[in-house]
Protein: 4-hydroxy-tetrahydrodipicolinate reductase
Organism: Bifidobacterium merycicum
Amino acid sequence: MVKVSVVGAKGRMGSHVVAAVNGADDMELALTLDAGDDLTRIDRSNTDVVVEFTVPSVSLGNVLTLIAQGVDVVVGTTGWTDEKLAQVREAIANGPRPSDQKVFIAPNFAISAVLADYFATKAARYFESAEVIELHHPNKVDAPSGTAIHTAHGIAQARKDAGLGEVPDNTETDGGSRGQVVDGIHVHAVRLRGLNAHEEVLFGNAGEQLTIRADSFDRGSFMPGVLLAVRKLAGDAPTGLTVGLDNFLDL
Amino acid sequence: MVKVSVVGAKGRMGSHVVAAVNGADDMELALTLDAGDDLTRIDRSNTDVVVEFTVPSVSLGNVLTLIAQGVDVVVGTTGWTDEKLAQVREAIANGPRPSDQKVFIAPNFAISAVLADYFATKAARYFESAEVIELHHPNKVDAPSGTAIHTAHGIAQARKDAGLGEVPDNTETDGGSRGQVVDGIHVHAVRLRGLNAHEEVLFGNAGEQLTIRADSFDRGSFMPGVLLAVRKLAGDAPTGLTVGLDNFLDL
Amino acid sequence: MVKVSVVGAKGRMGSHVVAAVNGADDMELALTLDAGDDLTRIDRSNTDVVVEFTVPSVSLGNVLTLIAQGVDVVVGTTGWTDEKLAQVREAIANGPRPSDQKVFIAPNFAISAVLADYFATKAARYFESAEVIELHHPNKVDAPSGTAIHTAHGIAQARKDAGLGEVPDNTETDGGSRGQVVDGIHVHAVRLRGLNAHEEVLFGNAGEQLTIRADSFDRGSFMPGVLLAVRKLAGDAPTGLTVGLDNFLDL
Amino acid sequence: MVKVSVVGAKGRMGSHVVAAVNGADDMELALTLDAGDDLTRIDRSNTDVVVEFTVPSVSLGNVLTLIAQGVDVVVGTTGWTDEKLAQVREAIANGPRPSDQKVFIAPNFAISAVLADYFATKAARYFESAEVIELHHPNKVDAPSGTAIHTAHGIAQARKDAGLGEVPDNTETDGGSRGQVVDGIHVHAVRLRGLNAHEEVLFGNAGEQLTIRADSFDRGSFMPGVLLAVRKLAGDAPTGLTVGLDNFLDL
């Protein structure tokens, strides 16, 4: 049984993590902490893996403390910069377990979204045309989504690597309907009440189409990815810092 | 048996019409004419209904001649303006059959597209959100499609009639991914090799979505609509000029 | 302001209704009752419309009591038979407001599902082929869904009324993949973790396809339909018993 | 320039191949042969790669002759058994170029279909639920399609390899709507006028869905795969017999 503590346990994501850990046969819930609680209560005597879902302003501090406590950490909080990641790597090197500490940070724990992004990059070189449509709830303030931009960049890079030219497009007159062009790839953002987070990647050749779509209906969609990361850290994950759930998928 | 003549019989659409008439149990192919042929060979002794699929520059002249010949006409050629339509009405009034001549003109003969447009207008008042995505082959020069603009206007009008306000959209930063706003409705245009002509209308409320999609895979998709129009003209269509296939659908 | 009381207020659906009424600008929440509470506390002095979401075994009794109390009722509980509906009609006739009492019962309050069903019936006569795919969570015990069966019957009836024959199907060998044939229409049921309740109706002609899809992502999807019914009963709904949300849609 | 000859050049597929070769910048059309033509006219002096699209009853003989002529062969004809493949391998070993002869046989040249199948196998282990829907024109005599059966087997094997149990399904009553169960995976077949060959693979976890869909709209959809195979045989394809287009994709 993997002993799992949760930091940010009362938060929107953290409460889902608590429920998911309680529902997993191979895990037991250890400590559940929230803002104001003392993180040094967590150590290797009571915890194998910590799941940290808080806010960007406190997450780095939390992770550095947990590294000093010698426990492995799965981080779901967003807002990580290269500079912050460097601080994590340095803390691991100077911490109590420089040779076997494991920290995992992911911008997206939805397995469907991570797979869609990966498959899109793999497929890109085999099609003349490619476009990305992302669809979200209307409360989202940025468009297009970071995931869609990431997917578009991945497709563009794969096309370049394969020597493909620009996507075919004879449009002469347009009032904006052709969307945002990200690295040569047209990206469209739909905002619709009732939706959560969705992405559809369309590829076309003469006579054929390939469509890859990921739907995240609610926050529960991140839990299989979180549990997968916990198991990997308790198992055969590489030591040190790992960024991105695709590193833990066997693809 | 309805005797059907085809004008523009060797053209891309006309050749499909010839095949469709030959394949219809209740029709027989009469004359097939093309550029340079004498349209006055067509009259009521040999033809009940003419199908005219040519080019905008000659279509009006063809239709006026056919009205003078006293035959009913289904017109698939595009490019009709209010002025041209007025000339057709005048020609009917001054022609040999002012009281029972029938002329039918349609911008779109794809039944699926006409139905999708109609259903979208009906559904619009019941949803907070609505967006339109049209998808076409990359050789299309205009974006978005005329059909998508028509659908967006219909949705917008239905929303206004029902007293609905603007669609919810909290987007603060966007580089163009939210598409073209037509009368308050966001319209997106995808261009993908392998596609022909497709439209998807998305409606959303809290917790629910309604999607209506029309796919036109090839020119054959117009034939059921053309045959329906021929049967209507040979049957109970109203006399005079009728514009739009929705007039012949029982909705 | 319409005064709305909720019976079954602590139930899965009832608690959504309480929230929806609280969120509606034109309604105010009156009484919220649950199992064991005295329904005769509800009367015209405190309530315009009652929303009743309980269980089939008690719903008829509740409705009869509420009719005797003289309040209008929207019923979301399922399990209504012709016999039970007759008892409701009789209670209205013998109640305190025989000439202006309004009672509304609906098997499905999801507007998207009701519209999809209605549009499918309208479209059916114009296509050679039609099939229905319903998709639900894997805990559902019956397949296909009642809604899918209803849709298939509606399509079949529309085809018969229009003189259409059987759908084309040259399948010679099949191990069950062609689904259940309901009144000549093939119906497929998908069961997938993560889904809630979804239905897709596919229509095809040579070269074209029309797809109508309704997604109900969660119970909140029923609230727009419930609020619509409340407004109709407080407004211009016909007196007596009305069954089915399509009666309140302007189609 | 790769010199390409086509055997079965007047056939439904062969005529598309002729057009595709003529449209490729890096290929030139050499000989075009059909039934009754002498295959020994093809040799290394005039041809680098032959594309053979005929019928199962003559394909093996053609391939053996072409191997004896010393030219590399791309075979699109179906109906290959293990026994026939063994004969091809033997012919290569005993032919004029045992060490560098290349023969390629593929059951499906649609890149989108091959990728969808491959991605489905990769994704399978990460989802609780998986189902397959294939959709074809109504003239198809077998259901489900061979491709859908292949995909279902691949998903089932991947689930077993990962230690996953059965897909969740609480269905108690069903009249056939749940489809055909292939190795534990439910497979549904839709037959709709207007469609050609399509496959959709649905994966589900709590709160999320991944959908992979391949559409083949017409025979032209096979040409990018055929040209890819020709280029591979003229390039770095392994010597000997290769079966399946996935071997030529960089995945």
